[in-house]
Recover the amino acids of this structure.
């Protein structure tokens, strides 16, 4: 029987940004293991801010499994952290709070910066490249440098090999800034995939000596001109069965009223430092205002034309979550707000 390398991945207890951790377990299986074949495992929670030293065991419960084409017989195992009883979710387990809805669909647009020696990849030492303009979806050495696209392509291939449902990739507005989009059906599916895609990107860039900067506003020059650079978002596109199949303007307006009422609760889980990014500039709404509009990239929620033209049926885009947000918390909060609105 082949020996499989099972890489158990979990989120640690760091705040406001959980870090990714992983370790390998070797196990024999006849063929590529299914989720139900994978045992729970443990780790030392006192080293990850998840337990006290005197009672340090935490449990890793597998929740999703992906082939790892970078390793012979490699398996990526996304897990949730549980208390020692194996049943109670650990307080750091943000996934456990997501309402279960197989018909909820999410598409996340993950933006991020490549960083090298503390600056965005491609920035000249101690200085700035030409102002933003040519970088978004750009091509050529002057726009994207000589290494970013190689990493982006490798990342895409590893993710596709793993069965991660990438829908696209693009170079973003700032130099050294990129995006990938992942779509999934089921309330936790896309968020699981985002975390695994983040893990794969971090692991891939180790060998290049390049960091991934998830923070939402790494460059903070004044608006306009050469020191002005976009921040990074993680737009959350969402739909439920009711939104896709019934919709209607009255329901939509009730839903938006509920989003407005819960402005603070949403912002609380849409990623740290978001006040630096949600300024009302750079295609954002300001952090203390809730708004929505058709095709409006300066609104909190953008209504796609297709939604408005189809009797308010389809999906909506919440533009506020940032690049460092935990997609589990984002998906959970959006579904909680939706659940509070009666569908009839
Ligand atoms: P933009 O950059 O213009 O906002 P993208 O093409 O980058 O748009 O992202 C659109 C996102 O919308 C994708 O992540 C896609 O998966 C998602 N999406 C499309 N249809 C649905 C749907 N019915 N429910 C949820 N998300 C959806
Ligand atoms: Mn996009
Ligand atoms: Mn984008
Ligand atoms: Mn978007």
């Amino acid at each position: 029987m082949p020996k499989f390398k099972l890489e158990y991945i979990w989120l640690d207890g760091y705040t406001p940004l959980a870090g990714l951790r992983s370790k390998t377990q070797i196990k024999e299986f006849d063929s590529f293991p299914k989720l139900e074949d994978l045992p729970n495992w443990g780790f030392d929670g006192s080293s990850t801010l998840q337990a006290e030293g005197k009672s340090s065991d935490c449990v890793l419960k597998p929740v999703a499994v992906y082939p790892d084409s970078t390793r012979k017989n490699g398996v990526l195992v996304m897990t949730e952290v549980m208390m020692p009883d194996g049943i109670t979710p650990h307080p750091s387990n943000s996934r456990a709070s997501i309402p279960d809805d197989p018909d909820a669909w999410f598409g996340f647009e993950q933006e991020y910066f490549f960083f090298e020696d503390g600056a965005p990849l491609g920035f000249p030492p101690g200085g700035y490249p030409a102002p933003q303009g040519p970088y978004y979806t750009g091509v050529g050495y002057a726009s994207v440098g000589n290494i970013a696209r190689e990493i982006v392509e490798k990342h895409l291939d590893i993710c596709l090999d793993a069965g991660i449902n990438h829908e696209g990739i693009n170079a973003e507005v700032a130099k050294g800034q990129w995006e990938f989009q992942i779509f999934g059906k089921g309330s936790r599916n896309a968020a699981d995939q985002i975390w695994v895609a983040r893990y794969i990107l971090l692991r891939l860039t180790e060998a290049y000596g390049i960091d991934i900067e998830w923070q939402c506003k790494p460059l903070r020059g004044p608006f306009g001109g050469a020191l002005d650079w976009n921040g990074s978002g993680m737009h959350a596109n969402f739909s439920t069965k009711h939104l896709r199949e019934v919709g209607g303007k009255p329901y939509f307006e009730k839903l938006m009223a509920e989003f407005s009422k819960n402005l603070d609760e949403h912002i609380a889980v849409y990623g740290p430092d978001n006040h630096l990014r949600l300024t009302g500039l750079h295609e954002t709404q300001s952090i203390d205002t809730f708004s929505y509009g058709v095709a409006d990239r300066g609104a909190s929620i953008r209504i796609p034309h297709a939604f408005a033209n189809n009797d308010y049926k389809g999906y909506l885009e919440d533009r506020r979550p940032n690049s460092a947000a935990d997609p589990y918390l984002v998906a959970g909060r959006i579904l909680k707000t939706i659940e509070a609105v009666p569908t009839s």
